[in-house]
Structures are given as C-alpha cells and as structure tokens.
Amino acid sequence: MDEDAVAEFLGRCPGHVLSQLLHRALAARPENGYAGSGDSVELRMVLVQASRVRNGPASEWEPWELAVVADAGGDAGGMIDRPGEPCLEEGTCPRCEVVVVSHAKEARCPLCRRSVSLA
Questions:
Q1: pLDDT in tens, 38-54
Q2: Is residue 114 classed as helix, strand or coil in its secondary structure?
Q3: Which of 14, 58, 96, 98 is the most exposed, fewest CB within 10 Å of its CB?
Q4: pTM value?
C-alpha cells in the first residue's frame, strides 16, 4: 500500500480505528525511551486532541486545551463508531495526572499504560 492509499484510509476510517492504529504506530517509534546523559529525560510519542471554545459568535476564542488520546486497551465495547466523531470520554490519569480522552469509557493511558475510567 502506498502513502496516498494509507492517508486516504486513515482519513475516512472511524475515529476509534484511527486512534487504535496510531497508538500502535506511535508505540513502536524509536523516539520513545530515554534521552540525554544519565537517562535524565524520558520521551513518549503520543496522539493529542486539541480543543477550544468561545462563548458566542462575538466573543474571543479561549486558549487551546490539550488532552492525551488513550486507546481502549483492546476492548472495543462502548466505542463510538462514526467517522469524525471526537473523543468524548474524558478523565485524568491517576498516575500521570494528565487529561486523557478516548472513544471508550475504559481506556489505558498511553504514557504509563494504567487503566483509566472516563466519563
């Protein structure tokens, strides 16, 4: 499959399929791991969802908020299966303390792999 076919497939697949595929690809990236002298920095390639709001058409946009996109940890139950649907489930990883979003109510934090219950 050539790059254009891959991009076309990823552009039209349901959001939960896209995030699952990207999680697999990002987890295998060589950038993940330790960098710097004395193993002083740890790196992770992750998928992020950015969002912002405004309170009416005449108001200014609020600053962007970023959330790490989590996968469902192998459980596709309760997934939203519509192309373009954003990750609507949200919570905070109790270990990493980062905001996590997903297409599933039960997910795994892509940073520490801990199970996170989302609402």
A1: 677 888 899 999 999 99
A2: coil
A3: 58
A4: 0.80
